[in-house]
Amino acid sequence: MGRFHRHSDGTMHVHDHDHDHHDGEGVTARDVGDHSGYPETGAARIEVLENILSENDRVADANQKDFAEAGVRVVNLMSSPGAGKTALLKRTLATLGAGTRVGILEGDIATSIDADQLSGYGAAVSLVNTSAGFGGECHLDAVMVRSGLSRLPLAELDLLLIENVGNLVCPAEFQVGEHAKAMVYSVTEGEEKPLKYPVMFRAVDVCVINKIDLLPHLDFDLDVFLANLRAVNPAATTIRTSARTGEGIEEWCSWLLGQVAAGS
Ligand SMILES: Nc1nc2c(ncn2[C@@H]2O[C@H](COP(=O)(O)OP(=O)(O)O)[C@@H](O)[C@H]2O)c(=O)[nH]1
Ligand SMILES: [Mg+2]
């Protein structure tokens, strides 16, 4: 378990920190402190967090049972804010068309901006605002997802796509009962992020490398990024897309349909 963490807004959870520099295998040898913070309350905090996480996993199991009963496959889509999740989902809905019955569970801190953008494509959309009773959390957990499921016709869906809250750290730490985790990574984010945010990159089954239409305007080195990704997650599928031009969207939709087929 990582270190307990409290946000400035009062929300709290644990982060799985990378301790490579302690065992000598890490690439950096910089002294970043002894990690012995919270000496007086540390043990109690860890216990509270273990309870929170095991409660989360219990609800995630209940979600997964409901998904199995309904015969729906579920993909949890994560990224930094602005990497292109909503734009990719719009393209996805337009490309999959009526042949695949898709539901969207839209996670957002406070607004319905993304949910509004995704309506009108024939998909059932359920919005979960984390500021509405969930402390404004920076991720979706299993309980929040469960609250949004009641507004979806699960048994009538083939595929449920969850747009998680934009954040490169916390969403990866909470199982929500999904069958696969996907991330959208924008080429504007630099090559080094897999090394800086390994928990997220390690957790995903597929990394959609988006905004490739912008490559001619950037110094982004795709080979360096791919090597960094491989260093933390050798098995992840990679798909290059532009939600702007439509490049790679067919390949992404084929991957999604493969997920649906794997469940039938
Ligand atoms: N050039 C370019 N812009 C994109 C692409 N995908 C998304 N965007 C833009 O990036 C911004 C953030 O996209 P959005 O889908 O809202 O990101 P989200 O926060 O991850 O849901 C919007 O202005 C999109 O139009 C892409 O492939 N290429
Ligand atoms: Mg969005």
Describe the protein.
This protein is of the alpha/beta class. It has one domain: Rossmann fold, CATH 3.40.50.300. The protein has nine helices and nine strands. The protein has a seven-stranded parallel sheet with strand order 5-4-6-3-7-8-9, sandwiched between helices. A two-stranded antiparallel ribbon has the order 1-2. It is globular, with a radius of gyration of 19 Å. Residues 1-6 and 16-27 have low confidence and may be disordered. The structure holds guanosine-5'-diphosphate and magnesium ion. The site of guanosine-5'-diphosphate (GDP) has 17 residues, from helix 3. Guanosine-5'-diphosphate (GDP) is lined by residues 79, 81-87, 114, 166, 210-211, 213-214, 242-244.
SSE layout and pairing:
Elements: E1 3-6, E2 12-15, H1 20-23, H2 42-70, E3 73-78, H3 85-96, E4 102-108, H4 113-118, E5 124-129, H5 142-149, E6 159-163, E7 180-186, H6 193-196, H7 198-203, E8 206-210, H8 222-232, E9 237-240, H9 249-262
Parallel strand pairs: 3-6, 3-7, 4-5, 4-6, 7-8, 8-9
Antiparallel strand pairs: 1-2
This protein binds guanosine-5'-diphosphate and magnesium ion.
Guanosine-5'-diphosphate binds at residues 79, 81-87, 114, 166, 210-211, 213-214, 242-244.
